[in-house]
Amino acid sequence: MAATKTVKNVTKRVWKFLWNDNSIWSWLINAALAFAIIKFLVYPGLGLILQTNYPVVAVISDSMQHQAEFDAWWESMKPFYEKHNITKEDFMNFRMSTGFNKGDIIILKGKKPEDISIGDVVVFRAGSPEPIIHRAVSKWESEGKYYFATKGDRNAGQRDEEREISQDRILGKGWLRVPYVGYVKIIFTDIIKAIRG
Length: 197
Known about the structure:
Layout (H helix, E strand, L loop, with lengths): L1 H18 L4 H27 L5 E3 L11 H14 L4 H5 L12 E5 L11 E4 L7 E11 L2 E7 L13 E2 L3 E9 L4 H14 L1
Antiparallel strand pairs: 1-2, 2-7, 3-4, 3-7, 4-5, 5-6
């Protein structure tokens, strides 16, 4: 009975410290708890539901941002896409056809290569530490394995590393866009880089 009362008292004090105390220690512990919950519960849970190890990515470049309204943007990019047999009407029917911005969050779904179509936004590993998120512009099969080529909507052409992407480099395909929430990660990463020098 006394042990139960002690546990209740300790629980009440911890709860009060976490939710009612305005000290720097309370803030720091709350931040650490939020980080741990997201990193070890929410993120893996989303990954399980969405069938990918990378369920959420922050967009860290502006390579998918359209610099003009759609018709003007299309006119500037038309030669590339027509060379890949993608018409304006095709493009308008693609998911996220108006691109997205640096700082957006993209929720990904599983990466079964047979489920990825031309026009899908895919995340893939390249030579850099950060994965790249671009649009698939072609897909082919060779010796039982799928390959893709991608392009950033804003980019005039393709990078070398996105001309032939094997299915094992694909981390997932874009499913949902959450505007600008990714700036939290970008700012945090920039601060860490500045501290490290």
